[in-house]
Every structure is written in C-alpha cells, then in structure tokens.
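name: query_chain
kind: protein
chains: 1
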Amino acid sequence: MNSLLTSIVAVAIVLGVVVLVHEWGHFMAAKLFGVRVVVFSIGYGTRLFGWKKGDTDYRVSVLPLGGYVRLAGDNPVEERTGAPDEFLSRPRWQRVLIYCAGPFMNLVLAFAVATGIYLFLGMPVPVYMSEPAKVAYIGAHTPAEEAGLKVGDRITKIDAIDNPTWEQVYTALGKVTPGAPIPLQVDRAGQQLSLTTKMGDTGNADVAVGDPLMAPVISEVASGMPADRAGLRANDKIVAAEGQPITTWTQLVDVIKGSNGNLLHLTAEREGKDLQFEMKPILGPNELGQTVYVIGAARIDPTNYRRLGAIQAFHEGGLATGNMVTMVLGVVKELITGKVSVRQLQSVVGIARESGQAAKRGTVDFISWLAVISVNLGVLNLLPIPILDGGHILLLTIEGAMRRDISLAIKERIVQVGVVFLLVIFAIVMYNDVARVLPHH
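structure:
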C-alpha cells in the first residue's frame, strides 16, 4: 500500500473512531435524559442506507469521517412543538451534561486505549533501562556536573542497590524530593568514588545523575519542519553539532534548545558517509509540553514491552491520559500567550500524514496516536468558542446566571463570530499544512 493510500485509510479510521465515540457520548446522554434522537449517522453527507428503530434513523452516510447525531428541537431557529422530549425543552443543566458527554467519552476512549496497551500489549520500556547505569552525557550547570560525575562513570550503588540498572536508578530517584542530597558510589576506570549529587528543583532525574546512552539516530522527520527542509532523513545518525561530537540524543537536544533559533550546523552519518546540514530551529512543544527550540526530528528508541497487571495498567492508563490532557492545555495556553504560532497546528492534512506514519510504525503506535487525537478532540471541543461544545456550555452557564434566555438575534451573531473565527483558523492551518508538503517549501 503506497504512502498516500495508507494515510487516507489511517486518517479515516482515526477520525472515524474518535468522532463516532464523541457523538455516541452525546447520543447516550440525550437518551438518558429522555431527549428524542432523530438521526445517528456514521459518516456525513448523503444517506446511503440504514434502518429506523423507535424515533431514531440509524444511517450510514457517504463521507466516512466520523458521524453526527441530530436531536429533536435542538435548533432554536426551527419551529418547535415544546414537547418534553425536545432538546431545548430540557433543563439547562441537562443540556450542559449532554454537551459535556461527547468530550468526556473522548477522554474515556483515550484512557481505555492506554490501559489496554499496558494490559494486553505491554508498557514500552526503553532497552537502555535494563542496562548498567553508565553515564553517557552530563548537562552543563547541572547537579550531576557540580557533584563531579563524569562521562563514562558507572553508578555502582544508589539507595542500597548495588550495580543498579538505569531503571533501578530512576526508581530510586523517584523517591527523592527536589533539592535533596543523593549519595552515590561510582566506578571510574576501576576506581571506586563516593559522590553526592542532588535532585533538580523540578525533580528531573537526568540532571541529578546524567543521561544513559541513547543513540542519536533519527526515526522520523516531521514534514515541513527545519530538519525536513534541511534534508535530514530517517536512519540518519547525528555525529556532530556545531563541530562538537554528539554521542547521545540528550546532548543533541541540549544543543538545539540552546541555539536560540540561530543557524545550526549538523553532521549526520548516512550509509557510511558524513553529510553536512544547516537549519534554524523553531520554537515548538517538546514531549513534555514545554516550548523549546526544536527541529522536528524524533529518535529511534529501541524498546521492550512489559505487560502490567490490571491495577497497575489502570493507574498507568490514567497517568498517560492526564499527561495528554496537560500537554494539550499547555499548547492552548501558549497559543493564547503567543509562544506557539497557529502555523504549527495541523489540519486534517497533517493528521492524515501523521496517521499514515503511525500506521507504518505498527499497531501500538497507531492506536496510541488514536488516543492522542481523541484527547485533542475532547479537550479542544470544550474551549469556550461558539459552535463548539464549550461555547454552548458557556452560553447555557450565562443564561443560568441571568435566569433567562439570551435573545435569538444575539445568539445568531455569537455563532456567526465563532464560525468566522474557526474558518479563519482552519484556513491558516490548512494553508500551512499544504505548504509543508510542497517541494519549494
């Protein structure tokens, strides 16, 4: 299957599932409160076929990207009978819960996917976690550097654990409060040394003991990003940055973060040859949701999978879902403050491209990507923008505080503003998405 067809099929599955789950949430909440559901459609556009059960026309429509529900009496500009099973006849709190149910089900889907991965497929654990804790890189001005740790040191004792693996080191550090001292024993060229480091103020373990060896080999390059425009490709190994030898991925990340957006010179090994590349990093979110300078390249991360028990899988699934929500909210905040540009967002074109790449990487990556999109849809739908669920919730909240309905004319104007705003954002994002894939960009 070629890349274009893979992307089309993958995005149809991803958007189809997450939108259907979203609409199913609205559907179930409406049924719970006795609101008549007129249509439940899989897909959009012209009805292809279906069946009617009770008051609801269950149908399959021509465009298979998600679906929608139509509730009786949900449009204030259409004639209503005032029957109790019409949406606008229900109390405001019930309408709020019906609007909330769609985004809620998206978060439930993400939680179920994450938990299922941990329970049935296994939790991905980097290969280096089971290796001896030998330091490959130490960041400048970190507690590890101040403690006297050196590249090549092997941690031989921490928290009464002899010859720990990196996983045991990180587990021990997880028990330490930020700023607390940490006694270590290390082997340096056969000599045993006793050192004392400390946790960073943010609780980052890497600043306390340095980083393991993570080969600086690229797994994929984001289309249209600096690395892509410069010509870097999957399987390229970065061997130098600004003339400085690169031995581990974290070292490369620090160089990029410290570039301040200035021209960056990288040397990469490709098929036995060293190639030179120039690029200007741009500000964007990293894997922690922080805004830093990035080039749009991810590294190859060899992993093993470790299945978890039910309780631990539920716990880790909850943490993973919470982290995804936090990252989306962080990006929204930085969009509002101007730290992240709208140009860095992705439309359906970018989602299709990323969906295709995730599908090629395998089942775990693909369903993980589905969970990410589900969280994005759920959280973004709660933004207080007219025509989104969050906009409707805001209007209902205001009406509840006023104890009366806002006039239809004002509502129409609010909706028009919301539509124009979203169309402008969509046009900007779509333009930049298409521009990224054009050769001259």
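note: The longest helix spans residues 3-32.
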